[in-house]
Amino acid sequence: MNQRFFKGDQNIAWDALPCAKALLMVSSSPTFFIQDEKLGTADARITHKDKFELTSDYCNRFTGAVWVHQDTSIGPFYALPTEPYTYKKFGFFLKHVDSTFEDIADEFGLWDFLPELGISKRKGQLIRSLTEGENYIGIVPTVDVQRSISSYKLIEGGLGNFYRFMLMLLYKGALKASSKNLWFNVKNRVRNLAESAKVFAKENPEATVSDLQVFIWKFGFKNIFETEAPKLTKASDVFCFDGEIPHTVFMTTLRHPQEFADSYNEALNKAHLPLKRLKMKDGLMELPFFLECDVSGELVRWHIKATFDKSITLRMYYKPEGSKVIQLPQNPTIEDVKRSISKEFGCHTLIGKAGTLISELTRPPRIIALPEQGSKYAPMVKFLTKELRNRGIDYNEGQLMRIGLNALDSLKILDNTEINLPGFLSCFWGKSKSSEWIASNWRKFASMSSELINAMNFSSGQLLTVAKYIIMEKESNLPDVLPPKFQKLGNVKGISAPVSQRLLEKLKSLVEKRDLILEQRRIMKAEFKNATMLFGIEKAIMLLVAGILKRHDQMASLFYINHRPYALSFYITFGPETVRDMAQNAQTRREEC
After folding, report:
1. Closest Cα partner for 586 from 24, 6, 73, 72?
2. Which of the four, 187, 217, 375, 466, has the lowest number of CB atoms within 10 Å?
3. Which helix (H) or strand (E) holds 402?
4. H-helix or E-strand containing 339?
5. For residue 210, which phi and psi values (nearest 5 degrees)?
6. What is the tens place of the pLDDT at every residue in 503-529?
7. pTM above 0.90, yes or no
8. Closest CA to 322 of 344, 350, 352
């Protein structure tokens, strides 16, 4: 059986280029495609002035989550958002964060310290500041519409200007990370990219976001790998009915709807994915697939609901156009589906949501290539296969291939170049380190932080104990035998690593003040009237400790950067050699799914 490799990306400027080069060493003719997703998701809880805006990834009261697909890394190092469930492990519950925390930060002068912990001051948006990542930013549309990136023209709503601004941010980040003696080379690489982009824009006045991705693809292969780029297609072409994809997962859903729904939901549960579950009610179920069609020159996604009875009724709906209905026999063939959809819509693309898309591209003989880290849907695909087979469904096991780039290890080839560090690293390592030092030591620090976080399961009251531990560890005053309260924290050795001397003094002063008030309460008992002050100080301590733990979460995200580098930023900052090295030395492995 001839295996067919596929590799899809939403943002070619990220890790697509070195991954593609690595895949070409495994397969001579893989199919590379742009995953023409939605442009992104804006924060529904705030007022937007323009059609698009630049934002970071963050969570704002959970329903206001922001997701960015078209983004840039401000310098080669970036930190992922800190998720609500991670704060829960810290014992700091975001659902309890309200405006009083901001008032306390004002009252106790915490805003002089929180920014060095990655928590910036934004009135009324403390949860955003607690959760947002660092050093990368992206574009989102401010209105939620089911349009793919293939439908957004760069001239629309000043969208092209946002991309130009992101290039400027990338450039500034590269300069900030580089020593001044390397600025000339950085400027030349940026100038080359900017001039090429200018020619592209002039020759393609109606270019879409997808067209821009193709431009970056060709630019990267030419300037980094010094070779002609392989063909780059779109997901809408890959999943076209006229292509080779048999739509096995979709047909399994139609033929075994209840078994598929139960398997799909159980797979999501086991993969711990907070995605919408499938619900069958009176034979009606919304399917985890889209129909992509051209509407007035725009590629849009129609949702699909199915009613299962003596026959199958598919109702496709796209809000501006209403809905359309097609009928299928009870046990349809793929030809029945193609014929009915083509007759009604005149379009031929049926595409799954993330999990079902990956599932389709792992059915033999197809294999999808994914990064070593970062594809959160891959475990769900494996569970889905197992659950379907356990329910007696004829569903073959598949394979995917992981590609590990080891980007941070590739810094060793830079001949001891001094690299200036962003805040989430400088709080651990100092303002700068040599490339060789980073390549040799990053894993030790990231492992320490990762192990700390994985072992945490604190209650909110334990954060006050954590504060005392941090102070004693930073001052090298921990006793040989830890007191019971410290022992209950587990192994938290190294937790004080990102704490500066000035932050230590602030935390120490708050803890000492709390101890004095507790002593007053012990003496005064019923006459104690300082409860409000005590409560405020404890909140202030908890907020600082939460920030310290956020820095550990960001240090742990170096594992993600190592496997998911923003390759265009590495190229601009360090030159093509590091990107070539990570592609040449990439590690690949197969996973059954």
Report:
1. 24
2. 187
3. strand 399-404
4. helix 334-345
5. -65, -40
6. 999 999 999 999 999 888 888 877 778
7. yes
8. 344
